Automatic annotation (TrEMBL):
Classification via InterPro entries: FAD-dep_OxRdtase (IPR006076), FAD/NAD-bd_sf (IPR036188), FAO_M (IPR032503), GcvT/YgfZ/DmdA (IPR028896), GcvT/YgfZ_C (IPR029043), GcvT_C (IPR013977), GCVT_N (IPR006222), TrmE/GcvT-like (IPR027266)
Record keyword Translocase present: no
Domain FAD dependent oxidoreductase: 9-373
Family: Belongs to the GcvT family.
Name of the protein in question: Dimethylglycine dehydrogenase
Keyword check for Oxidoreductase: yes
Every GCVT N-terminal domain range: 432-708
Length: 815
């Protein structure tokens, strides 16, 4: 007889480390009526053969959060659930071969310190004292992570499973899920043991997540790589040292050579991420098998040769060891290498916790995040970097394969701000792509749409090599400055394909929208910024609300926010409303025309009433095409956004471009726009605006209408207002060196950490390095001097008055 229950609150599909941790955390949150279905034995997917490294290092704030949480959970898990585990905290040494790599390390040391971790930088001598077998040629320094270690992945999974079971959750093994359907607001999950109904479902199927996704009509953006490590026989010298020292060697990561080397008993384990990597199950002659439980790919030693030779030069005792075994297993990759944790896009009551490339070290944190998504609909930390909705409709298999291979081959690469990765490009092109390319545009994709970042002149160095810097200077700097100054003194035009746009229309639309945003819904003919808060008053998103009629709006938001924001709106719309809500992003295009000459340029090509004021919009005609022109400027100058049908983009661009020539019109890119907006203190999505902060902390109270009887987040914001905010959004000017402050740079005062930056850039109109950030409330007073830590060095900074640095009274856009 089947032991499958007929009903559960949550069904998790997949019993690897991540599925088990999700079950454990759901049960811990009190949701014990949860069932995990595993098609084979627990750990049958990637988990059983994982090397089990548990680093805390990440240059991403949210991923570091997850890994830090995992490491601390693993320390206490064994005794907590009474399941002893092999978990060795050995520390790790991450080797750096360049100045830029050390800068990266110093930045991570700063982030780690902020998260309560004591990471450190080592000199070559210090490395050798911790790792006596190390050769230090070509090294500039290293990062020491005392929390790094390794765990037995199977024991970890079993411990989490035991903990979950002990709390009342169920695990059914040898129970493959074969189908899913929606019935009466429930999921019905089919297995050979029968059907189970549930409120919520979680896809935790690892490298089979795409197959499971299909059961829900969801195309999971992922691919599968082959990943290997080599185990070596005992090395007598290492055994002798280890016994005498009474410890294992710290794990070594040579990130610039792209491998890790770990002591395994008295031998070694070498795991490279090879440039000449291999994808699997991507071609008709290599189909994905029905089942791959507890299986491996054949060894492929040729691919590893270069790495092996390099490792032997770094740690010569390795050269004396015999090779004992190669493990070559499937490892799933999302296009950016981060996992998918969160709502399954477009599918009700369904979640994803899958496609982990570091699923052992992330399982603990991922389970916590997943459980929060399911039980609360929101997470403690902003988890956009792992949110499945960061990908939309452009991630077909070709794209996923190209990106997966690129990321795998550059697993440890530094992600420099002016380096735009080349794989998977040109997914979505603006109709004027070729025109702006001919003007020198250097492109980067936003939600698949290629946008100009800056415009190069013919002799500019646009090589990859030139971009390998964290610094402000480079071939782009002069050009970005020229673009900013053209916008300041004459006019600039920026093509913005893919601006996300939702049409909201019908009776009750205004009232519904008013209940969702903190502020006032604009009157017809006007446009306004709107902030959406969650129940804790935290910033979910920002949209521009363009009111066409009393109950007819266009909601415009960031390109990358498309599925996230649409999902938020849909989630809060009940079935019985009379209005419609549609995603019409693909039908429209937008070009920004801004600068003091923009009125004169528009006057030559359009019939619009250009005296209409700031925050108004009107229908106009340019080059015989209808468009909606909106009197706003994210650049903080006189200007209009020209919204058109996609097919009219070229005609309108050509007309404006031609008319603009005698007025000094120049094309400008996203890099210039970022510099221009930061001078105005305008917030950027998922940097300055994230669920890590409340609307009040974010300095957005002027967008809160307290007189509204209710709106989402109001109660929490009222409470916060009464108690007073603990930290506050500030604009800082920084006496920076060669780099401006990146996201999450630490703010210091009197030797104490007092806040963090949320974005930073150089302002070419004001000639200063600017950072936006969150500062302890008592220090958030104009004139207050503090310090900002940028790549390990501290620089003086001043808190500026709560107004834009450029044109504080906003006279220029309102001119
Ligand atoms: C060689 C190698 C070394 C690695 N080393 C490390 C490391 O050192 N550190 C680290 O953090 N990560 C490492 N990884 C990655 C790590 O193994 C994975 O990220 C992790 O195991 C993923 O766990 P998971 O639970 O998401 O998926 P999996 O372990 O793959 O679990 C998914 C489960 O879903 C089940 N399933 C699939 N389809 C169905 C269905 N239809 N119905 C029911 N069940 C289903 C599968 O049987 C499987 O048990 C390594 C990977 C490889 C290949």
């Amino acid at each position: 007889m089947s032991n499958l229950p007929s009903h559960a609150r949550v069904v998790i599909i997949g019993g690897g480390a991540v599925g088990a941790s999700s079950l454990y955390h759901l049960a811990k949150a009190g949701w014990t009526d949860c069932v995990l279905l595993e098609k084979n034995e627990l750990t049958a997917g990637s988990t059983w053969h994982a090397a089990g490294n548990v680093p805390t290092f990440s240059s991403s704030w949210s991923i570091m959060n997850m890994q830090r949480y995992s490491a601390s959970l693993y320390r206490e898990l064994g005794p907590l659930v009474d399941y002893p585990m092999n978990y060795h905290v050995t520390g790790s040494i991450r080797l750096g071969h360049s100045r830029e790599r050390l800068q990266e390390f110093k930045r991570v040391v700063g982030m780690g310190r902020y998260q309560g971790m004591d990471l450190d930088i080592l000199t070559p001598e210090e490395m050798r004292s911790r790792y006596p077998f190390l050769e230090t040629h070509e090294l500039t320094g290293a990062l020491y992570d005392p929390y790094d270690g390794d765990i037995d992945p199977a024991q970890l999974t079993q411990a989490l499973a035991k903990g979950a079971r002990d709390m009342g959750a169920k695990i059914i093994r040898f129970c493959p899920v074969t189908a899913a359907r929606r019935e009466n607001d429930e999921w019905v999950i089919t297995t050979p043991q029968g059907e189970i109904r549930c409120e919520y479902v979680v896809n935790a199927a690892g490298y089979y997540a795409r197959e499971v996704g299909k059961m829900f009509g969801r195309d999971v953006p992922m691919m599968v790589m082959s990943h290997q490590y080599i185990l070596f026989d005992e090395i007598p010298e290492l055994a002798a040292w280890s016994k005498e020292a009474g410890r294992k060697l710290p794990l070594l990561r040579d990130v610039d050579s792209s491998y890790y080397l770990r002591q395994e008993k008295y031998g070694m384990n070498l795991g490279p991420y090879e440039r000449n990597c291999r994808a699997h199950w991507t071609t008709p002659d290599d189909p994905m098998p029905e089942d791959f439980s507890f299986q491996l790919f054949p060894d492929d030693l040729e691919r590893l040769e270069w790495y092996l030779n390099d490792a032997v030069e770094r740690v010569p005792i390795l050269g004396t060891a015999g090779l004992s075994r190669v493990i070559n297993g499937p490892i799933p990759y999302a296009p950016d290498g981060n996992p998918l944790i969160g709502p399954m896009p477009g599918v009700p009551n369904a979640f994803e916790a899958c496609v982990f490339t570091f699923g052992i070290c992330q399982a603990g944190g991922a389970g916590k995040v997943l459980a929060e998504w399911v039980t609360e609909g929101q997470t403690e930390w902003d988890m956009w970097s792992c949110d499945p909705r960061r990908y939309t409709d452009y991630t077909d298999q070709d794209y996923c394969i190209a990106k997966g291979k690129e990321i795998y081959g550059h697993e440890y690469a530094m992600h420099f701000p002016k380096h735009y990765w080349p794989a998977g490009r040109n997914r979505k092109l603006s109709p004027i792509h070729d025109r702006i390319a001919a003007l020198g545009a250097q492109f980067k994709p936003y939600n698949g749409w290629e946008r100009a970042m800056w415009y190069a002149k013919p002799d500019d160095d646009i090589s990859d090599t030139a971009t390998q810097t964290w610094g402000r200077e480079g071939p782009w700097a002069k050009r970005i400055e020229e673009e900013c100054l053209a916008v300041r003194d004459a006019a600039g035009i920026l093509d913005l394909p893919g601006f996300s746009r939702f049409r909201l229309k019908g009776e009750g639309a205004r009232e519904w929208l008013s209940g969702l945003i903190t502020g006032r819904v604009p009157k017809p003919g006007r446009i306004g910024l709107a902030y959406f808060a969650d129940d804790k008053g935290r910033i979910v998103t920002e949209m521009s609300v363009m009111a066409i009629e009393e109950d007819f709006f266009f909601l415009i938001t960031a390109a990358t926010a498309q599925w996230h924001d649409f999902g938020w709106l849909q989630k809060h719309r009940s079935a019985d409303v009379a209005f419609t809500l549609d995603d019409v992003t693909v039908n429209f295009a937008c070009q920004i025309l801004t600068g003091p000459k923009s009125r004169a340029i528009l006057a030559e090509v359009s019939d619009a009433d250009l005296s209409m004021g700031w925050l108004t919009h009107q229908t106009a005609e340019i080059a015989g095409r209808y468009c909606q022109i909106i009197r706003v400027s994210f650049a903080g100058e006189l200007g209009w956004e020209i919204h058109t049908k996609v097919e009219d983009t070229a005609a309108i661009f050509d007309a404006v471009w031609e008319a603009g020539q005698k007025h000094g019109l120049k094309p400008f890119g996203m890099e210039a726009l970022d510099s221009l907006r930061i001078e105005k203190g305008y917030r950027a999505w998922k940097g300055d605006l994230s669920t890590d902060y409340t609307v009040l902390q974010g300095g957005l109270e002027r967008f809160v209408d307290w007189s509204k009887p209710s709106f989402k987040g109001k109660a929490a914001l009222e409470r916060e207002k009464q108690q007073g905010v603990t930290k506050r959004f500030v604009t800082l000017t920084v006496d920076a060196g060669e780099c401006d402050a990146p996201y999450m740079s630490t703010l210091w005062s009197d030797g104490q950490v007092v806040g963090e930056t949320t974005s930073g850039n150089w302002g070419y109109r004001v000639g200063k390095s600017i950072a936006l950030g969150m500062l302890r409330a008592d220090l958030a007073v104009p004139g207050q001097e503090i310090e900002v830590e940028i790549f390990g060095d501290r620089f003086k900074a001043r808190v500026e008055p709560d107004q834009p640095l450029w044109d504080p009274s906003n006279e220029r856009p309102k001119a």
